[in-house]
TrEMBL record, chains A, B:
One of its GO terms (molecular function) is histidinol-phosphate transaminase activity. Pathway: Amino-acid biosynthesis; L-histidine biosynthesis; L-histidine from 5-phospho-alpha-D-ribose 1-diphosphate: step 7/9. Its EC number is 2.6.1.9. This is Histidinol-phosphate aminotransferase. Residues 25-349 form the Aminotransferase class I/classII large domain. The modification N6-(pyridoxal phosphate)lysine is found at K212. The lineage of its organism: Bacteria, Pseudomonadati, Planctomycetota, Planctomycetia, Planctomycetales. The keyword Lipid metabolism does not apply. It comes from the Bacteria.
């Protein structure tokens, strides 16, 4: 007999993107930001480093919550910090979902939702998107009985962004809608938690991360924005001291330097436009990305071969393959790195054919 | 209807010790280390700070696991890192315990065990200790059906340490024994995971933290040591990137500087001996502590009054009160701070009466 819970015994576990620890790679596989974080982040960490690491961090993350709340024009009790938005997703699952209840997400999208639902013993339901990444006609009906509906907007791996009006129609009658805005700052017109102020706002949780637009994947920091009634329940589930002194200081400083983040996301938007045009010139089809990555497919379907040949040239992109009700869907998800890195991809793809 | 799971709706949530953010307190309420961490920790964080915070940390925590495994003479696949041993406790619960299964712990002990069991929907069972903090005669019978038995050794808030042989008898037949050794390094003869090498070692998980003996409560870092078969299941449940680049660097450097940790724990053991003798001189009863705190009770039972009067003098200790099957048990848990801080407590207690 296994000591493990049956779900844990049976599951494969989530496989993160490859993280080679040695240098020399053009690493465009996990949507990290090509540019460094604000110098204010370094200063802030330096400061707490020589302070008192022997004492616990502020369990209420008071300063961080104040800064984040100003950004979204809400009160501080609308904010809950976590170790990356991944921890926030775990907290959401443990706050709202009992075993055998339904958790839904569009498909293909972020595969961690299914892993977390499995761990919680929930029933996970894929809502298969149309081939142009739009919602199927029965999406709202399928989502209706969910305890949580996760909607990454913009979506991954496609990079497209859905309209607010489409998303509002999907809110489950007895559950919450989690808007995973990990890539929100890369949109042409970034959203600012407007949906929280809609009539259904008290059933919506927005999640944000500092890993992408703020160039801080290394510090693992994300947060939720939601009505205080929802945050109150989530706070009972989170570990009291989930965020550490160093990452709290780094995250607070990063949010304070909006100019730095804006300059980097502006640059990435410009590189994205150029890359899309170049890669289309090579015969690829792409989605109009609103993120820092581009989903690239080729009519010949030879995506895995190209992934392997890029890897041989020390260029790492993400090859993704999704089984569908009929057949499969695959492609290359390529992070919008620096212009130089993207030129290397283009040159290599031209050579590879 | 509440959107929350019924457990979350009903529970009060864990209350951490007070963490005043303003200076000027003699803070002896959450068992932080009175001394700073090793200078190597600061150096290590400085180094990664100017490195690449824009990329994800190593999801396998390779270097940390190597250093930790050497310390306990096991292979690296016996180690799982987490955000404080609190996150390890959460991972254990989600790995091993299904709703309605039994989770046990001695009582009084660390109250977080019960909170985590509640969140998981488990049945929590207190095994009430004798008044001298020894196990009751029926402990092994009571523990038998647990999926997890948590045993903090040394125990909190009492500070006493149980013998290995007593603990081995308590291992549940279909569950795991979690030895929470948060305070292990403060013992007169610290244990070194010897029980993992016993015949029942494959059903034991040892948890450790860097918050106490390594003076790093601020970085939230702990880890589990257990047979690779157990670690493998736990790894499926943990977030891929649960530990960040900064805390990984800090924790690795801290473990490398054993001399620094030994010098601090030696100092704390000496202060503890002196403090126990002083406080006994004032009429208190104390346990022979093997930790960095001392459980103090007074025959007159006026513990809450003394806590309040100390607080008025800006001395913060922990007043704890535990309902028992008959009556209650309360007392003051006082962290072994610097000699100067402890002298202030002694002087104040003498004044307060």
């Amino acid at each position: 007999m296994s000591l493990f819970r049956s779900q844990v015994q049976q599951m494969a576990g989530y496989t993160p993107g490859e993280q080679p620890q040695e240098p020399g790679w053009v690493k465009l596989n996990t949507n990290e930001n090509a540019y460094p974080p604000s110098p204010l982040v370094l200063e802030a960490v330096q400061q707490v480093l020589t302070g008192r690491l022997n004492v616990y961090p502020d369990p209420l993350a008071t300063e961080f919550r104040e800064v984040a709340s100003e950004l979204f024009h809400v009160d501080a009790d609308w904010i809950l910090p976590g170790n990356g938005s991944d921890e926030i997703l775990t907290i959401l699952m443990r706050t709202f979902v009992d075993p055998n209840e339904i958790v839904s997400a569009p498909y293909p999208s972020y595969t961690l939702y299914e892993t977390l639902a499995e761990i919680q013993g929930a029933q996970f339901q894929n809502i298969q998107l149309n081939s142009n990444w739009s919602w199927p006609a029965n999406a709202s009906e399928k989502a209706a009985k969910s305890k949580i509906l996760f909607v990454p907007n913009p979506n991954a791996p496609s990079g497209n962004r859905w309209q607010d009006s489409e998303i509002l129609e999907l809110i489950p009658s007895q559950g919450v809608l989690v808007l995973d805005e990990a890539y929100g700052d890369f949109c042409d017109s970034p959203h600012q938690c407007e949906l929280l102020k809609s009539n259904s706002g008290d059933k919506i949780v927005v999640t944000r991360t500092l890993s992408k637009s703020y160039s801080l994947a290394g510090i693992r920091f994300g947060f939720a924005v939601a009505h205080p009634d929802l945050i109150k329940g989530m706070r009972k589930v989170k570990d009291s001291y989930n965020c550490n002194t160093l990452s709290l200081a780094a995250a607070t400083a990063a949010l304070k330097d909006q100019k730095w983040m804006q300059a980097n996301t502006d640059q990435i938007r410009a590189s994205r436009t150029h890359f899309i045009s170049e890669v289309r010139g090579l015969g690829f089809e792409t989605v109009e990305s609103q993120t820092n990555f581009v989903w690239c497919t080729h009519p010949d379907g030879e995506h895995e071969r190209r992934y392997q040949e890029l890897k041989q040239r020390k260029i790492l992109v993400r090859y993704m393959k999704f089984p569908l009700q009929e057949g499969t869907r695959d492609g290359l998800r390529i992070t919008v790195g620096t212009n130089d890195e993207l030129q290397q991809v283009i040159d290599a793809l031209r050579e590879i054919g």
